[in-house]
Amino acid sequence: MYRILLLGFLLNSFFNYSHADPCTKTSSYIGFKSEFTMVQHQLRGVITIIDDCSFEISEFDMLSGIEVHWWGAISTDFGNLTNGFVISDHNLNQTYSNASFVVHLNKTLTWDQIQVLSVWDVPTASDFGHVIITNGSFYGPTVSPSVAPSPLDNNSTNAEEGGSWNFRVPTMFDNCMVLSKDFRVRWSLSKERDVIDIGLEAATGFQNYMAFGWAKPGSGSEETELMIGADVAVAGFTEDGKPFADDFYISKYSECTINKDGSASGVCPDTIYEGSDPVGLVNNTKLIYGHRKDGVSFVRYSRQLVSIDKKYDLSVDHMANMTVIWALGLMRPPDTLRPYYLPQYHGAMSLVNYGHFALNVSESINDCVGPLDAEDKEDQDLIIADANVPLVVTSGAALHYPNPPNPSKVLYINKKEAPVLRVERGVPVKFSVQAGHDVALYITSNAMGGNATLRNKTETIYAGGPEAEGVLASPTELTWEPDRNTPDQVYYQSLFQQKMGWKVQVVDGGLSDMYNSSVVLNDQQVTLFWTLSKDNSISIAARGEKKSGYIAIGFGSGMVYTYAYVGWVDEIGKGHVNSYWIDGKDASSIHPTKENLTDVRCKSENGIITFEFVRPIKPSCSHRDLPECKNIIDPTSPLKVVWAMGTKWSDEHLTDGNMHSVTSHKPVRVLLMHGSAEAEQDLRPVLAVHGFMMFLAWGILLPGGILAARYLKHVKGDGWYQIHVYLQYSGLAIVLLGLLFAVAELRGFYVSSLHVKFGLTAIFLACVQPVNASMRPKKPANVEERSSKRLIWEYFHIIVGRCAMIAGVASLFTGIKHLKDIYGSENVHGYNLALILWFLVGVLIVVYLEYRERQRKRDRMLGRSNWVLGNLEEDDSVDLLSPSRAAAQKELQQAGRMEVQLEPLNR
Question: Is pTM beyond 0.85 here?
Answer without folding.
Answer: no
